[in-house]
Amino acid sequence: MKKKCTFFILLWLCWYVGAAQGIIKGKVIDDQNKQPLPGASIIVDGTNAGASANLSGEFELNVFTSGKVDLKISYLGYKPSTVSVEVVSGKVTTVTIPLRNESFEILGVTITGQLQGQARALNQQRTADNIKNVVSADQIGRFPDPNAAEALQRVPGVNIERDQGEGRYVLVRGLSPQFTNISVNGEQIPSPEAGVRYVALDAIPSDQLSSLEVSKSLTPDMDGDAIGGSVNLITRTAQSGITTLNGTLAGGYNNLMKRGNWQGSLQYGQRLGKEEKLGVMLNISHYTNNLGSDNWERDTRDNVAEPEEHRFELRDYELTRTRFGSSATIDYKFNPNHQVYVRGLYSRFTDREWRRRYVFLPADDEVEHITKDRFEAQSVTSINVGANHLFGKFTLDYEGSYSYATQDTPFDNEAGFIASDVASDITFQTDYPRLSSTHYLDNTLYSFDSFETGHTFAKDRNITGKFNLGIPYQWGGNAGLIKVGGKVRFKEKSYAITQNKYEALSDIPDLSFFEGGLLDKNFIGNRYQLSPSVSIPSFIRYFNANPQNFELQIEDKAADEALESYTATEDVYAGYAMARQQFRKLMVLGGVRYERTNVSYQSSDVVFAPNGDLQQILPVSGKSNYEFFLPQLHFKYSANELTNIRLAGTFSYARPNFDQIIPAQEASLEDQIATVGNAALQPVKAFNLDFLAERYLGTIGIISGGFFYKKLDNFIYTRRFTGSYPLNSATPIATDLLITQVQNGKTADLLGVELAYQQNLNFLPGALSGLGVYLNYTYTHSSAIVQRNEAPETETLNLPGQAAHVGNASVSYQYKGFSARASLNFNGRYLSATGATTADDIYVKDRMQLDVTLGYTITKQWRVFTEFMNLTNQPFETYAGTRNFTTQREFYGWWTRFGIKFNILDKTK
């Protein structure tokens, strides 16, 4: 009762001090194309009262006086303006403020598109209360980045993990993907993948987005489960009554696969009606990519002193990927003070994979020839319904959202054949191991081993409701804002699997009987030879016609399905209170956020008899709950309109993944390995300290530098150790297995330095004035205390996923209608997973990729372009322990796209 009374008293006081004299509701636009200018700064002349424009260029400004006031408006790349507005006590005054673009003239040709996008992003960064980076749609279009993950790799301090050469997961400030939350239009979206929380951003086309925001310091009104950062993907909204129709049509070529790809997108937007109250924005895109990779791998589990006994693999991948995206926003403005909206996003990513591999087993003098045919589809649906209200004494916004993600694998077929007495002697070298013979190419020597079929389905659903109440006030002539809010999110996540394994009951033809499919005659630059692999359709026809020749392994099926399937629920309850106070040039923002999480799950425990046979399957359930109070404090000192100094101290946390807390235990006694869940896994807690100084340049650029520090408790890492199976059993059925389990470490420290510089060099003479540079570099050092095996001793390692060096370097040039950009993306080596010993620690080697974009603007509405990606043919490489013990090299070749972009404006209005 005391808490409730205190809350209502505070609310009443806020209401009392928030009795504003008048409100200015306005919009800042470009005076030529009428497009909004997000991030514009608006200041009441002679005071420190001000506001910044949102993504629609709109702002709200409380003025504690009546009569005429002068508003000073500034925006990078535009001429400053002063506008007089008459403020009426107790009423809302609306105003539209056009600004004139300070166009940069290069040999008589006006450059607009690229500079406008760059200005839009930098203005939003400049006026933000917290430390964030913004990438606008125009900037995304200037790099050859087809999905959201690859667009984010250009942001300072952001690294990405790739799959088959394409960006997939985002790592912010040296922390693994699970430390970063992903939102669409401000609300977290679920992950379509079976066991994790983080979202693979290769599923979301970059051309669906208006902008990308990476918040590196949290405010109390943001979700607290983001230690690395919070990524917000913002879809497009109609901005004016002018009809916009934009699109792209492109085709391409993959050098490794000698096959094409194509892309198409179309966007329509307009505000309808005489007063433009109804806004409609529709967006659709499709991308088909034929790609592949050449790969060799070696095993590190065997005795390192005897490398000739190591398992060695040759892997040849062929893939067809599609990426479909659609989004829509419909909003209605009853008047300048009240607005409702519906936003929707749907993306579908499909991956058809054919994998052909040889597995050389020198210790057994055997070679396995295995072919896999799999189709996987991921989809994400997000719908947000909400409203924004401006009343005389407070602002109120609320939203309900529904998001649903699935990963459906309707078929996963794998046929394996094995040959004895044909293994080659292997000489392991750093770059390319050598095989002593080619006997393994004779398909008549391979007899049937097994045939596996599978179907999996994962789903994740979020239902969310939230509200925010803002109450402006004035204290000693200084403007302030009190803001409170609450949120609930109900999650349901599940994973179901059907897994069948068949072995032979009678004679089955050798591999040569089933030959078919693609044969790569230039595998890894023709350093290795391959023979025709199994045609899966041919094998399935034989399987269906001769079921009597196969035996289903019932125990394996039951154990696999029980161990991996699960259902889980997670309920999150959150509330916050914060205040934002301006003291002349200093802004102080502080508050606290409370979050409580309740988790429950159901899965199965598989019990094996001492002889290794399946004994029984038992249902198992569990639950946990935890809560966090997260204080946040931000300082922003604006020395002048172009210079900010920022300091933030915040607390945050990261939840464990679902597949990590399900207590499943799965083992291969033949390979002496096991994977064990950890129901006792705790969330990671963190204290974050951030400092940043930034100077914005009049030529639409920025130079910035700062440092960040993070103190992590209970950090999560993958531990590999030797032990018995089942783990913690009084009667184990096997000993000395290599066990993999995710565990909590003790403490970890992470310290980094972040530098960025970008500028258009229009001050250079003549044609050189078209040059521009984009540079950023982040250095990160971490120290984490971990434990291996059962010994009490601990050791210090880098955090998994933390690269010491990450950076981008890009040089652009524009001359008349011609534009060009060469971009380098670099990340240093990082620890991927810890092993049973330091010699088994897996590291990903450093990587540098060169991309080039060329374009020519035919008219203001039409532009042709071509893009070249991975011109350095940069492979994915890993090593164990030391750099000369390479464990994997995977090559993707280079690929290109060429096409046309159009931007049609209907100016009939």
TrEMBL record:
The keyword Membrane applies. Residues 564-891 form the Outer membrane protein beta-barrel domain. The keyword Iron does not apply. Transmembrane segments: none annotated. Residues 127-229 form the TonB-dependent receptor plug domain. It comes from the Bacteria. This is TonB-dependent receptor. It comes from Xanthocytophaga flava.
